[in-house]
Design a protein that fits this description.
Layout: H1 12-18, E1 23-31, E2 34-41, E3 44-48, E4 51-58, E5 63-69, H2 76-90, H3 97-107, H4 116-136, H5 140-143, E6 150-155, H6 164-176, E7 181-185, H7 191-205, E8 210-214, H8 221-231, E9 239-240, H9 248-257, E10 262-264, H10 271-279, E11 285-286, H11 296-308, E12 312-313, H12 319-326, E13 335-337, E14 355-357
Parallel strand pairs: 6-13, 7-8, 8-9, 9-10, 10-11, 11-12
Antiparallel strand pairs: 1-4, 2-3, 4-5, 6-14
The protein binds magnesium ion.
Keywords: Magnesium, Metal-binding
Organism: Seohaeicola saemankumensis
Protein name: Enolase C-terminal domain-like protein
């Protein structure tokens, strides 16, 4: 969990500009916006997005804003308490996000590097990066040296596990909006049912739809070999999390047998875990989650490691925040677009067709 060898991310001239800002207090609020499209995956059903809304206040009045998506609704209060505890470690410190993250990592080293503490660290880290953007009056991707605000996106708001009529209707509505790339959830009871969903989409839309599939860790390693071999010739963009995220060696064995790239990353909790996945060649693509990997600082460190291996990086959720990160790295692949926060943030990042233009508001632009 403790990282010491990363090259600095924030340019020195910007560090000098923001080092006089100090963290004064934090405000946290729970929100439960309804998903515009409820989603069923192999790991459960989602109807609301449990969010922790975060505001970090600086002594001079600049307010940094971020949020966390809590994969489990009942743990949102615990996430809030942990975020308060993380903030206490850095209260009064200058708004230098890498220093803040490394201090929190050192402080909680004995607690371990996954779960609620890491997400709480992400909440604070993201809000501090938002302070940096607002303090110098630039969108975060520009602070980070990004020059091109156009990103490739795919639709991830629907195509859950369910009846074929609903899947087909959702795919039709995505297509109507110009989104031709979309993610289908698999991991039905049987391989035949997985194939049924794929065949239906192929029959209905042919090559006008490009698909990636996500098993949400739903298969055993032996079942994954059987099912992924069966779908390997279908021209899928990737096969996501076929087996449990901890089983990196087994994922590498599976990847070596397949032509189709495997995609993992949303359940890797640090750049160190990302590095391990890269060393093992566990997957051909990576998609870290900015909330689970520990925030903007740790996400960018992971993306740099991936670039060293020539691996392209996509995002997982958080479109308003992830869009700035992808626009700032040379190895950007796809932005995952899910509409889960559309009812929460006035600055919600929404694609047009298969592309998204990153917000030009200072910081993340969560509230336009
Ligand atoms: Mg996934």
């Amino acid at each position: 969990m403790f990282e010491t060898t990363h090259a600095s991310i924030l340019p020195a001239r910007i560090s000098a500009q923001v080092s006089g800002l100090h963290l004064a207090s934090i405000r946290l609020e729970a929100a439960y916006p309804a998903l515009p499209t409820p989603l069923q995956t192999s790991s459960g059903s989602l109807e609301v997005a449990p969010l922790l809304i975060v505001q970090v206040l600086t002594a001079c009045g600049v307010i940094g804003e971020s949020y966390l998506f809590s994969p489990n609704r009942t743990l949102l209060p615990a996430l809030s308490e942990a975020t308060k505890a993380v903030f206490e470690v850095v209260r009064g410190d200058p708004c230098l996000p890498e220093n803040i993250t490394d201090k929190v990592l050192r402080h909680f080293k004995l607690f371990g590097g996954t779960g609620i503490v890491t997400m709480a660290m992400a909440a604070v880290d993201m809000a501090v990066w938002d302070v940096v953007g607002k303090a110098i009056g630039k969108p975060l991707y520009r602070v980070l040296g990004g020059t091109s605000p156009e990103l490739r996106t795919y639709e991830s708001s629907g195509l859950g596990i369910g009846d074929q009529r609903t899947i087909r209707q959702q795919a039709e509505s995505f297509l109507k909006n110009g989104n031709t790339t979309m993610k289908l959830r698999l991991g039905y009871e049987t391989l035949a049912a997985d194939m049924g969903a794929l065949d239906m989409l192929a029959d209905a839309f042919g090559s006008s739809v490009q698909l990636m599939v996500d098993y949400n860790q739903g298969l055993t390693p032996s079942e994954a070999i059987k099912r992924c071999t069966e779908i390997d010739g279908l021209g899928l963009l990737w096969i996501e999390e076929p087996i449990h995220a901890d089983l990196l060696e087994e994922t590498a064995t599976l990847q070596a047998k397949l032509k189709t790239p495997i995609q993992i990353g949303e359940n890797l909790w640090s750049p160190t875990e990302v590095d391990r996945a890269l060393r093992l060649s566990a997957s051909r693509y990576l998609m870290p989650d900015v909330g689970k990997i520990g925030g903007v600082t740790q996400w960018l460190r992971a993306a740099r490691l991936a670039d060293n291996y020539g691996v392209k990086v996509s995002s997982h959720l958080y479109p308003e925040i992830s869009s700035h990160l992808l626009a700032a790295i040379p190895n950007a692949h796809f932005l995952e677009y899910a509409d889960w926060t559309a009812n929460q943030f006035s600055g919600h990042a929404k694609p047009s067709g298969n592309s998204l233009r990153v917000s030009d508001q200072p910081g993340f632009g969560l509230y336009a």
